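Handover notes (outgoing to incoming on-call)

Open items:
1. 3-oxoacid CoA-transferase subunit B: sequence verified, structure written out, both below. Nothing else pending on this one.
2. Nothing else urgent.
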Amino acid sequence: MNMKDMIAERAARTLEEYSIINLGIGIPTLVANYLDKDRYYLHTENGMLGVTSVEEEDIDPNLVNAGKLPVGEAVGASYFHSADSFAMIRGSHVDVAILGVLQIDETGQVANWAIPGKDIIGVGGAMDLLVGAKKVIITTNHTAKDGSPKFLKECTYPITSTRKVDMIITELAVFERKGEAFELVELMGDATLEEVKEKTEAHFTVSEALERSLKS
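3-oxoacid CoA-transferase subunit B structure tokens:
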């Protein structure tokens, strides 16, 4: 399993059956590959509940998700105006949002829509999802392309929302927010605690359960 799929599969295991889930662009879209389409309801902010995968021969060019990727429709899928879709988000009717990020700070605020000096299309639905979703999970590479940490003491890019995310899943680690700080609860793959510390600028604690397993 490649790195991105490993992250997506781990995120899928955190989800409760029959929940309404919005998947962001990038790694989050892969989460759908690890869900039973009859037990989870995928939502897209451009106006559909009941998103599912689609075979290439069945692609309808008019049926896409918010990232403009082709999607299929599950049995019982429904369509609605994008304004109604955002009303669902803002009204806290989305149980979980799974988003990608450019940066995360140690309190849980994220930056995922703009890099100063570069042409980025805009914030999209991320701002609304961060405010309205009941739970927010971040799926991302642990470091940027240049090897610099993405989990920082403070974001240097524009913050998307003051809402703090609940969980971070990378190819190295799983963090859960405990109050105003994050706790490392799991190491991914062959990652070591030393590697996570080396590639993370943000402060975090290590869960007692993980500490015990590392000592055993």
